[in-house]
């Protein structure tokens, strides 16, 4: 009887030892998997910590249709920046053509043309040949960036300034978002508007910059310095939008982006879409750095709203993000 009791006690101890051993192994295995997952995530995102550099090849991106997008790049006597931007964007896999909006009094030099053409040809891969075109304008006007391009082969246009760089992965993400809503504007630089309550009525609006977006979490515009839209808006801007708006833009050298935002919102009745993307400013100064910039932009908003006969801008708080680069969502 006593031997049987000892045998049962020994069996229980062995069972408890086995259970504790298995539990310890499970805990260690779980810790190992957590550590391995963390290391993998850090290594896969390591390039994001070092800032932007021109990639040696196209990244692993979302699939895109054969008919991609055209870049329309506004530039003005910043040839080093132009070269840097073309060198970068010509690597983006969805790109079909680059149109450089040229409004300088002198045409581009042969050396500049040859240099940029060499860059584009060098960056072409997998039988893809990106077309490079200089769109020469006689008049110096910010409206030139929205002139209709007769031979444009793609519906999607990525309007970009020569002094801002976005990783190709961000551009391709924005292109995919635009494909889901091709009538609206999809961009990286949000701005806002709101009613000026101090005026005592609902007919006067204030232009809000980045800090207004950051504070309120809402926006109603994405600036054309970095935005996708349909090529049909070139025709509408040039031929159907009130000519007084284009004249105001030319005279004041400002607000063509606000005019385009109002035009698209007026056509769609919908808000734009803000895409999260890391921006690299490679230029030094611009119009926005000048004193009184916000006041002039506010004047533009109210002037253009009067021309449209109503406020077409629609506010939203939605933002598109790449869920593959977010741990928790």
TrEMBL record:
InterPro entries: GT64 (IPR053318), GT64_dom (IPR015338), Nucleotide-diphossugar_trans (IPR029044)
Annotated signal peptide: none
Cofactor (UniProt): Mn(2+)
GO terms, molecular function: glycosyltransferase activity; metal ion binding
Keyword check for Disulfide bond: yes
Keywords for this protein: Disulfide bond, Glycoprotein, Manganese, Membrane, Metal-binding, Signal-anchor, Transferase, Transmembrane, Transmembrane helix
UniProt superkingdom: Eukaryota
Topology of the protein relative to the lipid bilayer: Single-pass type II membrane protein
Cellular localisation: Endomembrane system
Record-annotated Glycosyl transferase domain positions: 69-320
Family affiliation: Belongs to the glycosyltransferase 64 family.
Official protein name in the record: Glycosyltransferase family 64 protein c4
Phylogenetic placement of the source organism: Eukaryota, Viridiplantae, Streptophyta, Embryophyta, Tracheophyta
Gene name of this polypeptide: EPC1_2
């Amino acid at each position: 009887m006593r031997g049987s009791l000892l045998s049962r006690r020994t069996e229980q101890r062995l069972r408890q030892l086995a259970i504790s051993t298995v539990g310890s192994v499970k805990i260690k295995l779980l810790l190992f998997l957590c550590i391995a997952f963390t290391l993998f995530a850090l290594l896969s995102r390591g390039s994001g910590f070092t800032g932007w550099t021109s990639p040696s090849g196209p990244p692993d991106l979302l699939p895109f249709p054969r008919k991609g997008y055209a870049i329309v790049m506004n530039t003005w006597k910043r040839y080093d920046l132009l070269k840097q931007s073309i060198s970068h964007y010509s690597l983006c896999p969805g790109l079909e053509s680059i149109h450089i909006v040229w409004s300088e009094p002198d045409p581009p030099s042969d050396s500049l043309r040859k240099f940029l053409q060499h860059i584009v040809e060098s960056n072409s891969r997998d039988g893809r040949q990106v077309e490079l075109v200089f769109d020469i304008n006689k008049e110096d006007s910010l409206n030139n960036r929205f002139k209709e391009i007769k031979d444009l082969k793609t519906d999607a246009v990525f309007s970009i300034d020569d002094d801002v760089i976005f990783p190709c992965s961000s551009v391709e993400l924005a292109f995919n978002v635009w494909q889901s809503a091709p009538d609206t504007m999809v961009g990286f630089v949000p701005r806002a508007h709101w009613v000026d309550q101090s005026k005592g009525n609902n007919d006067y609006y204030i232009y809000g910059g980045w800090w207004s977006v950051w504070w309120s979490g809402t926006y109603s515009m994405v600036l054309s310095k970095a935005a996708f839209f349909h090529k049909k808006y070139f025709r509408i801007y040039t031929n159907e939008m009130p000519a007084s708006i284009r004249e105001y833009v030319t005279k004041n050298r400002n607000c063509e982006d606000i005019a385009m935002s109002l035009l698209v919102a007026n056509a769609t009745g919908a808000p734009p879409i803000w895409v999260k993307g890391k921006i690299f400013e490679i230029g030094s100064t611009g119009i926005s750095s000048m004193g009184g910039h916000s006041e002039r932009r506010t004047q533009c908003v109210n002037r253009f709203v009067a021309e449209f006969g109503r406020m077409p801008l629609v506010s939203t708080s939605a933002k598109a993000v790449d869920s593959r680069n977010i741990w928790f969502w």
